[in-house]
Amino acid sequence: MNTRAIRLTLLSLILWMGIHCANAFDGVVIVDDSTPATSLKADELKNILTGKTKYWENGTAIVIVYVDQKAEKELQSACGMNSSAFKTFWQRLAFSGRGQQPKKADDVPAAVALVKANKGSIAVVTADADITGVKKVEIK
Q1: Residue 65 pairs with which residues in a beta bridge?
Q2: DSSP conformation class of 2
Q3: What pLDDT score was predicted for residue 120?
Q4: Helix and strand tally (H, E) in the chain?
Q5: Which CATH number goes with the domain that contains 94?
Q6: What is the count of structural domains for the chain?
Q7: Which end of the chain is more exposed for a tag (fewer CB within 10 A), N or C?
Q8: Are 115 and 134 spatial neighbours (Cβ–Cβ below 8 Å)?
Q9: What is the pLDDT of residue 19?
Q10: What's the CA gap between 130 and 85, in Å, rounded?
Q11: Residue 64 phi, psi dihedral angles, 5° rounding
């Protein structure tokens, strides 16, 4: 096999792995009951979590709730950042006046309670979370 064929094979494998990994999502996305969303595409979720999308389709402001270090893998798969990078990202946006920092929850039950109490809120939590009182959003 020549060098060009090996390079093409490796490139194809890397691209396939990138697409496959980008579509993998670990966790559950929850919103408060008044939020109109029932499903989101993975890129829509990422746009919300990175502040590119600030309002729901009904005009309600999106309030992001994140669990500091208790849903690390889930946050990473949703937006590509661990909780430390996510916090730093939002601190920079807030400091520059381009966004408002997400609400921080110390654990998953606290995140569920914050989502339940705040209109327009969204959070990424662990798959085993008790999500009574909030709505689960399907990620496509």
Answers
A1: 103, 123
A2: -
A3: 96
A4: 5, 6
A5: 3.40.190.10
A6: 1
A7: N
A8: yes
A9: 47
A10: 26
A11: -90, 135
**Angle, vertex CA 82, rays to CA 111 and CA 134, nearest 5:** 20
- Give the residue-averaged pLDDT of 56-76: 91
**Residue 77, both tokens:** 């798969």
Instruction: Give the up-direction half-sphere exposure of residue 27: CA atoms within 13 A in the CB hemisphere.
Output: 23
Whole-number Å distance between alpha carbons of 26 and 36: 22
What's the start-to-end Cα distance of the chain, in Å?
A: 39
pLDDT tens digits along 73-116? 899 889 999 889 999 999 999 999 888 899 999 999 999 999 99
Q: What is the pLDDT of residue 13?
A: 55
Residue 72 domain-assigned?
yes
| 95 Cβ contact list (under 8 Å, min separation 6) | none
Range of the domain at 128: 26-139
CA distance 4 to 7: 5
